[in-house]
Specification:
The protein is an alpha/beta fold. It contains 10 helices and 6 strands. The chain has a 6-stranded mixed β-sheet, sandwiched between helices. About 9% of the residues have low confidence.
């Protein structure tokens, strides 16, 4: 991580504008505080990605808060043709001039103004490469649903006079140890942590507990939709609980996860619920937006 941050810092003088991508579902946890120091004084725009998956009311609140703090902020969705709008806004913020030092891979310079250079930064799986492809109107940067697709730096020419530098995702220091109980569960829920570095059951139960507390009723609606689509009846033992049934919130979450396992056919040896399979299912379907539009902070 230190090496990646040092490389970003070394390239600051070579770019006109920095675009920071943040998953709109984790607008606070999804930012790396160390980037604030590195980017200080550089023209930048904060882009809340995957806004089609986030709670629209929460997104409006966060955008207002960021603007009050003096940040340039946009919310974008892969379902919208946002590439041209974002590029126009980015170039307007970058203004004229720019560094004259060449970047490796940018090719020969033409006469006149130097190309505008935009660096895209953010934590893993925050939509950096997807955003670049949207700006370019075609697939130029590698993308995927798992974190860590971009391992090195990719220099992409999106149109005449515009170069975009894609960078590897850098996790904030508080989440490097993947301690889910301290908040890293939010990053696990949106797919920003590598799969083998955290406990799926704990992450799923912390997510379910948050949903039961902040979005009462959403899990019942989700269960009903999935059972209808899969041709199954109600979950064994009745519908999923929308209200706390245990004093310990994680016991309530385990009860909910057990109900989902029964309803979705995640059954292990001897007919017992397979909570690992159910947890993986919950996390995958949350990331895909099948539980509805949710913001986790």
């Amino acid at each position: 991580m230190k090496r990646a941050l040092r490389s970003i810092e070394e390239m600051m003088d070579l770019v006109d504008l920095v675009v920071e991508t943040v998953d709109a579902r984790i607008p606070k946890s999804g930012r790396n505080p160390l980037l604030f120091r590195i980017l200080k004084g550089k023209t930048r725009v904060l882009v809340l990605t995957k806004s089609n998956l986030a709670d629209p009311n929460a997104t409006r609140v966060w955008m207002r808060r960021f603007r009050e703090q003096g940040e340039n902020v946009l919310a974008v969705s892969v379902l919208e043709g946002f590439g041209g709008r974002l590029l126009e806004s980015a170039l307007g913020m970058a203004g004229g001039g720019g560094a004259r030092v060449g970047l490796r891979g940018e090719g020969p310079r033409s006469r006149g103004d130097p190309p505008k250079r935009i660096m895209v930064v953010g934590i893993p799986n925050s939509g950096k490469s997807t955003l670049i492809n949207a700006i370019a109107g075609k697939r130029l940067a590698r993308t995927g649903k798992r974190p860590g697709i971009t391992r090195g730096y990719q220099l992409v020419k999106v149109e005449d006079g515009v170069l975009v530098l894609d960078t590897p995702g850098v996790l904030p220091i508080p989440w490097l140890d993947c301690d889910l109980s301290k908040g890293a569960w939010r990053l696990a829920a949106v797919g920003a942590l590598e799969e083998g570095r955290y406990d799926h059951e704990e992450a799923a139960m912390l997510l379910l507990d948050y949903l039961l507390l902040r979005y009462p009723g959403i899990l019942g609606d989700y269960s009903q939709r999935q059972n209808t689509q899969n041709g199954r009846g109600p979950a064994p033992g009745g519908p999923l609980p929308d209200e706390p049934t245990q004093e310990d919130p994680l016991l309530r979450a385990r009860e909910t996860l057990t109900a989902i396992a029964g309803a979705r056919g995640c059954i292990g040896a001897g007919g017992s619920p397979d909570l690992f399979r159910a947890s993986s299912l919950v996390l995958r379907e949350f990331r895909d937006g099948k539980m509805g539009r949710v913001t986790l902070e």
